[in-house]
Amino acid sequence: MKQNNDLSLVSQVAEFHDRAAFDRLVVKYQSPIRRFFLHQTLGDVQLSDDLAQDTFVKAYVNISKFRGQAAFSTWLYRIACNVLYDFHRRLRPTDDVDNSIEASRRGADHADSNVKLDVYDALRRLGDKERTCVTLQLVDGYPIDEIAQITGMAVGTVKSHLFRGKEKLTRFLRQNGYG
To answer: How many Å apart are CA 3 and CA 70, to the nearest integer?
Structure first.
């Protein structure tokens, strides 16, 4: 039912440029996409919102390219991953410790900030692809085959990133008094 409703909304947007139909898709997927980016950016709310907005703009512009071969959510997360990869490519030359410190400082303003900082510190230990795979599985609940579709990686590669990422998370959290 969820997939059929999404397909109906996508058709309305693609065929009739129905902004109300697209708004319904945004309302439905905005929180999960923002949460995905929040974990990828280690708690940087503003950056997460900006990346989510880029994702929805690209989805709207390219909605006629959606073929329905996968769930709309899978297609949308694939766009989100591409937005994230593009961001990381642009960031690499200027990435420095100040960005991490500022993200941690912003995260500290929220309730349960110590736990959030520990989780973000743990996620910071992961490579970009490991973090993407781990959060898609553990936070968003996607199965391995959908993570492969979303990220464009082979299933074996996803499994490898998940294994290494979970190992690193477990080691870090145990060393810091969790479990």
So the answer is: 9
Residue type, 24: R
User: DSSP per residue over 58-99, as a string?
Assistant: HHHHTGGG--SSS-HHHHHHHHHHHHHHHHHHHHGGG--HHH
How far separated are the first and last CA of the chain, in Å rounded? 40
Residue pair 108/117 in contact by the 8 Å Cβ criterion: yes
CA torsion angle for 73, 76, 78, 84 (degrees, to 10)?
Answer: -130
CA 78, distance to chain mean position in Å, is 9
Q: Cα(92)–Cα(174) distance, rounded to whole angstroms?
A: 30
Q: Per residue in 134-172, pLDDT tens?
A: 999 999 999 999 999 999 999 999 999 999 999 999 999
Q: How confident is the model at residue 61 (pLDDT cuts 50, 70, 90)?
A: very high
